[in-house]
Amino acid sequence: MSASVLDVKNVQKIYGKKGESQSHALKGVSLTIEKGEFVGIMGPSGSGKTTLLNVISTLDRPTEGLIEIAGTNITQMKQNQLADFRSQKLGFIFQDFNLLENLTVYENIALPLSLQGVSSKEIVTKVNRVAQTLGIEEILQKYPVQISGGQKQRAAAARALVHDPAILLADEPTGALDSKNAKSLLETMTDLNENHQVSIMMVTHDAFSASYCKRILFIQDGKLYTEIHRTGDRQPFFKQILDVLAELGASHDVH
Amino acid sequence: MLFKLSLSSMRKMMKDYLVLLVGLVISISIFYMFQTLALNSDFTKGNSVISSIQIVFNVGAFLLAFITVFYIFYANSFLLSLRRKELGMYMVLGAKKGKISQILFWETLMMGIASLCIGSIVGIILSSGIGKLLMNLLEISPEGYYPFYVPALWMTWGFFLVLFLITSTINAIRLARATELDLIRAEQQNDTMKRRGIGTIVVALIGVLLVAVGYYALIEIMVLQVLGLIIGAGATTIGTYLIFISLLPVFVQALKKNQQLNDRQLNAFTFAQLRFRVNNLTKVLGTVAMLIALGVGAMAGGLAFQQNVDLISSAQHVYDITLHDPAEEDIQALKNMNVIEQNTYRYKMDDKGYYYVKDDLLAHPPLISTNSIENYSSENKPKRVAEDLPHDGYIMYASQDDRTNLEEVPAEWDQAISTEFMISYEMLKGRTVQIVDRATYEGITGSEHQVLIAQVDDYLNYKPALKAMDQRQKQWIQSSLENEEREVYLSTKYSTYEAVYAFTSGTMFMGFFLGIAFLAMMASCLMFKILSGATRDKDRYMMLRKIGVRQSLLIGSIYKELFLVFVFPALVGLVHVLVGMQMFSFILLDPYVNIWVPTVIFLAIYAIYYYITVRLYQGIVLPKEA
């Protein structure tokens, strides 16, 4: 696979106005994600990984640098273009699910399609298909308050995928789940990645979750620290991750 | 310590408290303003206009009190919702429940007292402003009306203090009954979707039935009298609430069931928000509908009375001018008018009566009105008296003693003479009116006079001239009364108009006063409720933004949602008004005349206010543009 879905070049993000106390959240980050990759972003609290996710997901603008998603430069877009871009090209999974609790699971999943003016008939087909993939057909007519955390996250994943986005952005997707549900969700994501060619970028601080990725980028103090690739099984990769994290912690102490 | 804490957090939530305070101040100042009118006996008794509609006043005062009670209870539960989370946190940290309840009790009470102080001042300012302005506009003498009126102040303070005490206690009790976790999680609580089964349908049916009964009572008010007013007001009010509690949520649910519609753009979300609103706002929406009905109804009623003045005077009199022995000035004034028809009849007058010549009358038969107040229609055009007078002589206004062998004057001639010729009760005083043949007339020894009746294009164009004519007629009658010195009341078309106008101005004053008061209450009521729930909605709009909904779509959704929230009570309220106006049909010729004026006034106020709410709501829920 050669076509890149995400190209981040020398992105900087500075919070605060000039002349006032500024904080440098990203200090020139560059990365590329190829189509069909499952990439993890890791780093300690305050390393800038959430900021990175926010600028990639177009929710925040980088102060400097270039971000291209599926060949489109998003740094120069207007608000409405960005909104449309989000709704068409991006899929989101958040730690706290971000389901609209006054809509049924079905309506939540259908929302991105409704926004694009897809016909009611087509919506039914697509929602049912994605629900089947994620194993949540049974709960489509329920409200978020009536289902479990694991089911909520699956519903959120279904909403993120229903419109075939270029890339799925996951922000600590297992953060609010118990280990069983977390495992099940990660397996589903792996399945999506391997069997449905969904490109995924997942931000997490949990080594176990990260071990499902194929490649992990480590960020520290707003800069790319290192990256590691998974070559074999998850188990050794997990150890490798822990090693890097330990290294990070050590360098942290030195600072 | 806790008091200090709660004070500082109140300061932080200043914006929310401001909304609450403004709402309370509005309701208090309106209540005060009403009391300055109602309690001020110098004003109500001294002003014949106001005193004649005392019952309308009392009904208004009762309704205002009723709605205020409801409003205050509601506002204080809003206060509780503002403080729940924080007070729960204190409890988790180990503060005693009793202490917390106490804090809330005092907070509620202090809030009430603060708003009472401000409300009284605003009320006094409003009374001297709006009250005087309306009186000026309607030419009511403000004699005896004081914007600063101590009994009204007492009444307001007493009424609201009792209310605040009760609501403070209720708040404290409610807090005491909740657990710590309930309080902390208050904001995360989801909208519970109540299953709506057979119970809802029964409630809806009862609601519709009650409204029907209320409508019937209002329409049949002629028969039911005061009972009709009480049943009508009561049944319609309760029925309205029941309809909003049961029928409306079902309707919104049906809207949502329509898959095609629901799947379009943000509709699923808009309808879900709407469903949440109609479920949560049932009582508020019911209240708003009633306030709209009362507000518009009061204005429409007042205006209808005012507009009916011309109809009432025109229904009774065909001729705009009746002049006995017209003076030179009268003739001159007539020359400046556009006279359509003018007849002059001679008559003789002695101690016993007035004598008209039969041939004169038959030669120029006058017009008479075919309308009456009881049975009015603009189709009923005036008609010319067509009855023949075959006998030698006729008599009317005759007592038993006077009744000679003369015939009774036929009905149409009777009407013509009594309404068009004889313009004052004082003229009759024991005299009869006779129609006699020429020979008899010649033989009568009394003084000879003439009466001129005239119809002009539009008598309202000549008000000053007509007033002067009536003045001269009064003097003329006065002088013919010989030894008696008493006030003479005329019943010419213009005098009728003037008298009814004074009365109806009072009604209109009341109508507009009440109307504006109710509309203002409604305004703060709905705004209050919508804005108090807005922080909860913030997260939802944030989520929608994240998944890529255009700002314009979000704004559109807000407009649509709030529009529907606003439209339901407006529709119900306006239908109430349309039916409710029937209750005036027994005193008004046409209760619906110019009904569009208050409707348009209401719609204008409502639309502006809808726009403001949307804007305020947007400011709270929509994420700021990056």
From TrEMBL, chain A:
Matches recorded under PANTHER family: ALPHA-D-RIBOSE 1-METHYLPHOSPHONATE 5-TRIPHOSPHATE SYNTHASE SUBUNIT PHNL (PTHR42798:SF7), LIPOPROTEIN-RELEASING SYSTEM ATP-BINDING PROTEIN LOLD (PTHR42798)
Keywords for this protein: ATP-binding, Nucleotide-binding, Transport
GO cellular component, one term: membrane protein complex
Name the record gives this protein: ABC transporter ATP-binding protein
InterPro entries cross-referenced by the UniProt entry: AAA+_ATPase, ABC_transporter-like_ATP-bd, MacB-like_ATP-bd, P-loop_NTPase
PROSITE patterns hit by this protein: ABC_TRANSPORTER_2
SMART domains linked: AAA
SUPFAM superfamilies attached to this UniProt entry: P-loop containing nucleoside triphosphate hydrolases (SSF52540)
Highest taxon, organism lineage: Bacteria
The family this protein is said to belong to: Belongs to the ABC transporter superfamily.
One Gene Ontology MF term: transmembrane transporter activity
Domain annotation ABC transporter: ranges: 6-246
From TrEMBL, chain B:
Organism of this sequence: Brevibacillus invocatus
Family: Belongs to the ABC-4 integral membrane protein family.
Signal peptide: none
InterPro entries, per the entry: ABC-4_Integral_Memb_Prot (IPR052536), ABC3_permease_C (IPR003838), ABC_permease_BceB-typ (IPR027022)
Segments forming domain ABC3 transporter permease C-terminal: 59-177
GO BP annotations, alphabetical order: transmembrane transport
Topology within the bilayer: Multi-pass membrane protein
Keyword line: Cell membrane, Membrane, Transmembrane, Transmembrane helix, Transport
GO-annotated cellular components: plasma membrane
Segments passing through the bilayer: 17-35, 55-82, 103-126, 146-176, 197-218, 224-252, 284-305, 508-531, 552-575, 595-612
Compartment(s) where it occurs, according to its Swiss-Prot or TrEMBL record: Cell membrane
Pfam families: FtsX
Protein name from the UniProt record: ABC transporter permease
Keyword Transport assigned: yes
Recorded superkingdom: Bacteria
